[in-house]
Protein backbone atom coordinates (compact mmCIF):
# COMPACT_ATOMS: atom_id res chain seq x y z
CA UNK A 1 0.00 0.00 0.00
CA UNK A 2 1.12 3.52 -0.75
CA UNK A 3 1.41 6.18 1.93
CA UNK A 4 2.03 9.91 1.76
CA UNK A 5 3.46 11.84 4.69
CA UNK A 6 3.51 15.58 5.22
CA UNK A 7 5.44 16.32 8.38
CA UNK A 8 4.64 20.04 8.65
CA UNK A 9 1.06 20.60 9.84
CA UNK A 10 1.43 24.38 9.66
CA UNK A 11 3.86 26.87 8.15
CA UNK A 12 3.98 30.59 7.68
CA UNK A 13 5.95 32.85 5.36
CA UNK A 14 6.26 36.56 4.75
CA UNK A 15 4.86 37.95 1.53
CA UNK A 16 7.45 37.87 -1.29
CA UNK A 17 9.60 35.30 0.52
CA UNK A 18 10.23 31.67 -0.46
CA UNK A 19 8.86 28.66 1.38
CA UNK A 20 9.33 24.91 0.95
CA UNK A 21 6.73 22.32 1.91
CA UNK A 22 7.90 18.76 2.51
CA UNK A 23 6.40 15.47 1.42
CA UNK A 24 7.63 11.91 1.54
CA UNK A 25 5.91 8.84 0.15
CA UNK A 26 6.27 5.12 0.23
CA UNK A 27 5.57 2.82 -2.69
CA UNK A 28 6.92 -0.22 -4.47
CA UNK A 29 5.40 0.93 -7.77
CA UNK A 30 7.50 2.17 -10.68
CA UNK A 31 4.85 3.97 -12.69
CA UNK A 32 3.22 6.80 -10.81
CA UNK A 33 2.61 10.52 -10.59
CA UNK A 34 2.98 12.93 -7.70
CA UNK A 35 0.90 16.04 -7.21
CA UNK A 36 0.52 19.10 -5.08
CA UNK A 37 -3.05 20.31 -4.62
CA UNK A 38 -4.08 23.57 -3.01
CA UNK A 39 -7.25 24.02 -0.98
CA UNK A 40 -7.99 27.68 -0.16
CA UNK A 41 -10.67 28.70 2.35
CA UNK A 42 -13.25 28.29 -0.43
CA UNK A 43 -12.55 24.52 -0.09
CA UNK A 44 -12.04 24.09 -3.84
CA UNK A 45 -9.28 21.59 -4.64
CA UNK A 46 -6.91 23.07 -7.22
CA UNK A 47 -4.00 21.31 -8.91
CA UNK A 48 -0.77 23.25 -8.38
CA UNK A 49 1.82 21.02 -10.03
CA UNK A 50 2.44 17.39 -11.01
CA UNK A 51 5.48 15.22 -11.61
CA UNK A 52 5.76 11.98 -13.54
CA UNK A 53 8.00 9.50 -11.76
CA UNK A 54 9.86 8.60 -14.96
CA UNK A 55 10.90 12.19 -15.59
CA UNK A 56 14.11 13.23 -13.89
CA UNK A 57 13.60 16.92 -14.57
CA UNK A 58 11.77 18.71 -11.78
CA UNK A 59 8.43 20.21 -12.75
CA UNK A 60 7.89 23.97 -12.58
CA UNK A 61 4.76 26.09 -12.94
CA UNK A 62 5.49 29.81 -12.69
CA UNK A 63 6.33 30.49 -9.01
CA UNK A 64 5.87 26.84 -8.04
CA UNK A 65 8.55 24.19 -8.43
CA UNK A 66 9.25 20.78 -7.00
CA UNK A 67 12.31 18.94 -5.82
CA UNK A 68 11.69 15.31 -6.76
CA UNK A 69 14.14 12.86 -5.22
CA UNK A 70 12.97 9.47 -6.44
CA UNK A 71 15.47 7.32 -4.55
CA UNK A 72 14.70 9.12 -1.32
CA UNK A 73 10.95 9.12 -2.13
CA UNK A 74 10.79 12.81 -1.42
CA UNK A 75 8.68 15.40 -3.24
CA UNK A 76 8.90 18.94 -1.85
CA UNK A 77 7.13 22.04 -3.14
CA UNK A 78 8.87 25.40 -3.34
CA UNK A 79 6.80 28.54 -3.60
CA UNK A 80 8.77 31.61 -4.65
CA UNK A 81 7.67 35.22 -4.22
CA UNK A 82 4.83 34.15 -1.91
CA UNK A 83 1.57 36.02 -2.34
CA UNK A 84 -1.35 36.49 0.04
CA UNK A 85 -3.46 34.37 -2.31
CA UNK A 86 -1.17 31.42 -1.67
CA UNK A 87 -2.66 31.09 1.82
CA UNK A 88 -4.27 27.64 1.78
CA UNK A 89 -3.97 24.01 2.76
CA UNK A 90 -1.53 22.20 0.53
CA UNK A 91 -1.89 18.47 -0.06
CA UNK A 92 0.74 16.18 -1.49
CA UNK A 93 -0.78 13.26 -3.39
CA UNK A 94 0.28 10.02 -5.09
CA UNK A 95 -1.36 8.35 -8.07
CA UNK A 96 -0.50 4.88 -9.33
CA UNK A 97 -0.67 4.29 -13.06
CA UNK A 98 -1.62 0.76 -14.04
CA UNK A 99 -2.35 -0.66 -17.46
CA UNK A 100 -2.12 2.84 -18.88
CA UNK A 101 -4.96 4.02 -16.65
CA UNK A 102 -5.01 6.48 -13.80
CA UNK A 103 -5.59 5.24 -10.29
CA UNK A 104 -7.05 7.24 -7.46
CA UNK A 105 -5.24 9.91 -5.48
CA UNK A 106 -3.74 9.09 -2.10
CA UNK A 107 -3.35 12.25 -0.06
CA UNK A 108 -1.13 13.35 2.79
CA UNK A 109 -2.65 15.06 5.81
CA UNK A 110 -1.87 18.50 4.45
CA UNK A 111 0.18 21.56 5.41
CA UNK A 112 -1.62 24.76 6.32
CA UNK A 113 0.32 27.66 4.81
CA UNK A 114 -0.23 31.23 5.94
CA UNK A 115 1.29 34.07 3.95
CA UNK A 116 1.70 37.16 6.12
CA UNK A 117 1.77 40.73 4.79
CA UNK B 1 -14.91 26.74 -12.22
CA UNK B 2 -13.59 23.17 -12.62
CA UNK B 3 -16.51 22.03 -14.76
CA UNK B 4 -17.49 19.38 -12.20
CA UNK B 5 -20.88 20.04 -10.61
CA UNK B 6 -21.93 18.65 -7.26
CA UNK B 7 -25.35 18.98 -5.69
CA UNK B 8 -26.42 19.84 -3.12
CA UNK B 9 -23.72 22.13 -1.71
CA UNK B 10 -24.94 21.68 1.85
CA UNK B 11 -27.02 18.97 3.47
CA UNK B 12 -28.19 18.65 7.06
CA UNK B 13 -29.89 15.45 8.09
CA UNK B 14 -30.59 13.33 11.14
CA UNK B 15 -28.90 10.16 12.27
CA UNK B 16 -30.33 7.04 10.70
CA UNK B 17 -31.40 8.81 7.53
CA UNK B 18 -30.35 8.22 3.92
CA UNK B 19 -29.05 10.84 1.50
CA UNK B 20 -27.94 10.95 -2.13
CA UNK B 21 -25.13 13.15 -3.38
CA UNK B 22 -24.96 13.89 -7.07
CA UNK B 23 -22.02 14.62 -9.35
CA UNK B 24 -21.87 15.69 -12.98
CA UNK B 25 -18.38 15.27 -14.42
CA UNK B 26 -16.70 17.50 -16.97
CA UNK B 27 -17.77 16.90 -20.54
CA UNK B 28 -15.74 14.06 -21.99
CA UNK B 29 -14.42 12.74 -18.68
CA UNK B 30 -15.12 9.04 -18.20
CA UNK B 31 -13.68 8.60 -14.71
CA UNK B 32 -15.49 9.74 -11.58
CA UNK B 33 -13.96 9.55 -8.13
CA UNK B 34 -15.54 10.12 -4.73
CA UNK B 35 -13.50 11.37 -1.77
CA UNK B 36 -14.41 12.10 1.84
CA UNK B 37 -12.69 14.91 3.74
CA UNK B 38 -13.04 14.94 7.51
CA UNK B 39 -11.01 16.53 10.28
CA UNK B 40 -9.85 13.26 11.78
CA UNK B 41 -9.39 11.13 8.63
CA UNK B 42 -8.22 13.76 6.18
CA UNK B 43 -8.92 13.22 2.48
CA UNK B 44 -9.82 9.62 1.79
CA UNK B 45 -10.63 7.88 -1.46
CA UNK B 46 -13.99 6.13 -1.45
CA UNK B 47 -14.67 4.73 -4.91
CA UNK B 48 -13.92 5.18 -8.62
CA UNK B 49 -16.09 4.56 -11.66
CA UNK B 50 -14.96 4.45 -15.26
CA UNK B 51 -17.52 4.67 -18.05
CA UNK B 52 -20.25 3.19 -15.90
CA UNK B 53 -18.26 0.42 -14.26
CA UNK B 54 -16.72 0.29 -10.82
CA UNK B 55 -12.94 0.56 -11.22
CA UNK B 56 -11.56 0.74 -7.67
CA UNK B 57 -12.75 0.81 -4.08
CA UNK B 58 -11.14 2.54 -1.16
CA UNK B 59 -12.27 3.03 2.41
CA UNK B 60 -15.94 2.98 1.59
CA UNK B 61 -18.31 1.75 4.30
CA UNK B 62 -20.88 -0.92 3.53
CA UNK B 63 -23.58 1.65 4.36
CA UNK B 64 -22.34 3.69 1.39
CA UNK B 65 -22.87 2.84 -2.26
CA UNK B 66 -22.37 4.59 -5.56
CA UNK B 67 -23.13 4.23 -9.23
CA UNK B 68 -22.36 5.90 -12.52
CA UNK B 69 -25.17 6.24 -15.02
CA UNK B 70 -25.08 6.00 -18.84
CA UNK B 71 -24.89 9.80 -19.10
CA UNK B 72 -21.79 9.52 -16.85
CA UNK B 73 -23.20 11.41 -13.89
CA UNK B 74 -22.66 9.66 -10.59
CA UNK B 75 -24.50 9.36 -7.31
CA UNK B 76 -23.16 8.50 -3.86
CA UNK B 77 -25.75 7.05 -1.52
CA UNK B 78 -25.15 7.21 2.21
CA UNK B 79 -27.53 5.31 4.47
CA UNK B 80 -28.04 4.72 8.21
CA UNK B 81 -26.16 7.93 8.75
CA UNK B 82 -24.09 8.42 11.88
CA UNK B 83 -22.64 11.55 13.43
CA UNK B 84 -19.21 10.47 12.24
CA UNK B 85 -20.33 10.61 8.61
CA UNK B 86 -20.36 14.40 8.82
CA UNK B 87 -17.76 15.50 6.30
CA UNK B 88 -17.09 17.23 3.02
CA UNK B 89 -17.68 14.85 0.12
CA UNK B 90 -15.85 15.59 -3.10
CA UNK B 91 -16.42 14.27 -6.55
CA UNK B 92 -13.62 14.49 -9.10
CA UNK B 93 -13.43 13.57 -12.76
CA UNK B 94 -10.64 12.97 -15.23
CA UNK B 95 -10.25 12.36 -18.93
CA UNK B 96 -9.03 8.96 -20.18
CA UNK B 97 -5.62 10.29 -21.19
CA UNK B 98 -5.01 12.84 -18.45
CA UNK B 99 -3.78 12.38 -14.90
CA UNK B 100 -5.30 15.64 -13.69
CA UNK B 101 -8.38 15.16 -11.57
CA UNK B 102 -10.81 18.08 -11.55
CA UNK B 103 -12.71 18.48 -8.31
CA UNK B 104 -16.20 19.73 -7.70
CA UNK B 105 -16.99 22.23 -4.95
CA UNK B 106 -17.96 19.43 -2.60
CA UNK B 107 -21.09 18.63 -0.61
CA UNK B 108 -20.93 19.54 3.06
CA UNK B 109 -22.89 16.87 4.94
CA UNK B 110 -23.84 17.50 8.54
CA UNK B 111 -25.48 14.68 10.48
CA UNK B 112 -27.25 15.82 13.64
Assembly of the depicted chains: heterodimer
Question: How does the helix and strand content of chain A classify structurally?
Answer: mainly beta
Biggest β-sheet of chain B, characterized?
7 strands, mixed
**Class based on secondary structure composition and strand pairing of chain B:** mainly beta
List the helices and strands and how they pair.
The complex is a heterodimer of chains A (117) and B (112).
Chain A lengths: L2 E3 L4 E5 L4 E3 L2 E3 L5 E8 L6 E7 L7 E2 L2 E6 L4 E6 L8 E11 L2 E7 L3 E6 L1
Chain B lengths: L4 E3 L2 E4 L5 E6 L6 E8 L3 E9 L2 E5 L6 E5 L5 E5 L8 E8 L7 E2 L3 E5 L1
Parallel strand pairs in B: 2-11
Antiparallel strand pairs in B: 1-3, 3-8, 4-5, 4-9, 5-6, 7-8, 9-10, 9-11
Architecture overview:
The complex is a heterodimer of chains A (117) and B (112). Chain A has strands spanning 3-5, 10-14, 19-21, 24-26, 32-39, 46-52, 60-61, 64-69, 74-79, 88-98, 101-107, 111-116. By secondary structure, chain A is mainly beta. In chain A, a hairpin with a 2-residue loop joins strand 10 (88-98) and strand 11. Chain A is globular, with a radius of gyration of 14 Å. Chain A starts with a strand and ends with a strand. Chain B contains no helices and 11 strands. In chain B, strands 2, 4, 5, 6, 9, 10 and 11 form a 7-stranded mixed β-sheet that branches. In chain B, strands 1-3-8-7 form a 4-stranded antiparallel β-sheet, with no helix packed on it. The mean pLDDT of chain B is 95.
